[in-house]
Here is the input.
Amino acid sequence: MSAKTLTINGKPVSAREDETILDAARDAGVVMPTLCHLDGLTDIGACRMCLVEVTGINKLLPACTTRVAEGMEVRTDTEQLRKYRRMTVELLFAERNHVCAGCVANNHCELQDVGIAVGMDHVRYDYLFPKHDVDLTHTQFGMDQNRCILCQRCVRVCDEIEGAHTWDVLGRGVKARVITDLNQPWGESLSCTSCGKCVMACPTGAIFKLGSTVEESVKDRSKLAFLKNARDKKQWVM
Amino acid sequence: MTPEELDRTREREQAADANFEHHVHVCVGTACEALGSEAIAKNIESELKAAGRDGKIKVRCVGCPGLCALGPLVEVEAKDKPADEPATLYQYVKPEDAKEIAASIGGAPATRLQADTRQPFFTRQTKIVLENCGRIDPERIEDYIAADGFQALEKALFEMEPQEVIDEISKSGLRGRGGAGFPTGLKWATVAKSNSPAVSRVPDDILARKFVICNGDEGDPGAFMDRSTMEGDPFRIIEGMLLAGYAVGAGKGYVYVRAEYPLAVKRLRSAIRQAQRGGMLGANIMGSGFNFDIDVRLGAGAFVCGEETSLIASIEGGRGTPRPRPPFPAESGLWGCPTLINNVETMANIAPIIRRGAAWFAGIGTEKSKGTKVFALTGQVNNTGLIEVPMGISLREIVFDIGGGLPEGRSFKAVQTGGPSGGCIPAQYLDMKVDYESLAQVGSIMGSGGMIVMDDQTDMVEIARFFMEFCMEESCGKCVPCRVGTAQMHGLLTRISEGKATQAHLDTLTELCDMVRRTSLCGLGQSAPNPVLSTLRYFKSEYESKLVKDGQHER
Amino acid sequence: MTAPAGPPRPAPAPPAGPPRPASASAAAPTATPPAAVDKRTKLVEATMRRHGFRGNALIETLHTAQEAYGFLDDDLLRLVAKTLKLPLSKVYGVATFYNLFTLKPAGKHACVVCLGTACYIKGAGRLMDTLHRELGLSAGATTPNGNLSLLTARCFGSCAMAPAAVIDGEMTGKIAPDAMVTRLRKLAEDAS
Here is the structure.
């Protein structure tokens, strides 16, 4: 496996050829906001938070799915990118009901963190606020569609790491939402193993542990990368 | 079928045709068939039989000859007709007119039903893709063979190396007819060079490790070019795919067709069966050692599946959501294997290019856009229908000469090309040449070929809202800018339409257009703002006239 | 292979099977008399067999199922998932992604109005408004007596006939709203 040399924000960086721009940036200590990315899961490039500019390419590329290349000049923090990131976060906040004060994930929420990171102080768009239910039929966990940002981390963690594929996405466009089995109450799902990985993977307060206080709902997401590493490489690195 | 058998079949069919003194062509495309054209054909046949003339007159059910607005269409052609004379064409034919038409053959035409074939609609077209549409029976492989079908395949398999086929396509200058206009030869060369993965997700019943996909998911509302081609000349698509498969080294092809086109699906399936039986598909094709087979896959109503990575996801049996490119399907496509995707019209151009040579094709069109383009001309125009014109023709010639202008009392406002991904082109550009670059310059795109004429009564904000609603409903929901951005833009356009918006709303809309265009994952989102941007560019006053002047925000 | 019957197909088939409880117990198709179920289930199974019961046959299978039953209910989806060895949520996700699949039974008669651009320019929007005003039907709705469903399509590619609609599988073009209302009212009131 050969190494590639590239620059990120003008700084020379070397990376393995199978690494993505996001990997390389993180290794080099460059911080980039992400939402749909989770270490250990296949990247899908859906949230568009990690879009970067690459010299010579007209399109913006998602850092999480784009492989590094020799001589690549990457910019992660331009005026244009900052503006688009802010707008993306605003669109998410306007899509469903994200009132932090009433959310179990308050202060432990990646959407909230990203909102702060991009400097979002208000939302310019109409709040769409579709009517969504909260599913409390599972004995240990709950699902609040209102907080969901459709990052599909629960879908992927359940399929790729647990292997149950309890979660998937129903419909499409703004009407899309995550479901368990045949769009039935979570508590009635036959495939769910109650492993709790989706709870760990969820970046917001959409999927949560029942009965936990805000303090208890801190999610240990490193467990998922640990499992993935153990399964694929037979390496148990805590 | 060996090359010798192919020659014999062609000679036999052509000789049989020469025995008939007259040929009657009845259009059985979707539009004409809906108006009873099958009954017309049957009636004419039985009239001829009753008169004992069926040995001298051949009745054929054919694909769309183009002028759908006048359908059902029946064409009567005499064997000894001079080549530059048009055949007699009958319009608005009803099953009960069969007797009159049958009786007129060989004598004076039935003037009551006659269409004017000297009008520019018929004389100004150049037919390559549609050369057989309206001439051959799409359900008979022998008809296709008689029209020089499979000659290009024979030439490629026995006289050309795969690389020579690719070179020929490159030299022809053919560009993808699906919308973006990517050079076809370059795409083929990339797929040919790509190595198949050692480990792939290909189902174990499929031996191929490289694929050819023909994209027949013609999703632009107002476009029906590919439907007509698939219905009227399905064997041409099969031959194009075979040539592509040979050139890039693929062993299997899929035609992905919208389920909304049942007739096209039926004809393609029948054509594939006949080609398989004739040894033109399957193992050791024409005795050359080349193996290739084709399957039909049905879409199920999702515009986004016209995007190539979505289409692949759909063929694999999943939700038709796109994934980021790179890697491009040419390197990693269907089941992770190198995959060539061309749309129907591109595939339909392949056989004639190989048969007649790249130089011939490159002699048609403009410097950067070669060959012809098929357009579905609709909206407020007299001659609604399917046209094939050389690249570089002006919009004015299309709308006012071929299209016959707008209906009485209406005046031209704009023509929309490229569907929900395209834009509206105002009157000031009527003399512009139609090619990829010019259309892009004025803020629209070539697109797949829908061309919708709009009159002075058309409300452009309403048109922009209509397309945005389309994109919103067709967004797959995977990426944030497209999923939520289209909904927000639709909300803003509705607000403007209803006269409840201020300048601030218009600014927000403009800013969102830019953001969604730049940050969306796939072509659907990236082009969704186009109808808004182009109407804002040319008809901004229509937006501004609807704004609340110093109004209260209705946030 | 079977070709689909008629343009966008909101099932002219008889209202498929009696309502089935969405039981969690999966597997066995329904409580409908075995004979009626068998034939349709056999069609669905034949499609799956033709594709070697592989997961990638999901969309082809749903097409056959939709055609045979007129809509896709939970038990049918369970059967397909079980036979193709697919996750239930994936089957449901696919069935709800595509416009042509419906999870609710359609009316006895169906009218699909084209809302493509050419039809829109020629008044399809006004046609829908008229149908809503006169018949109280909006897109996707079925009359309370289950007689008539009003559906919409993206484009039939029959733009020359704009505005166009497909009524019980038959294409009609250049529609005058009033004539359409009369025709649909008859279907909605059809007692047979």
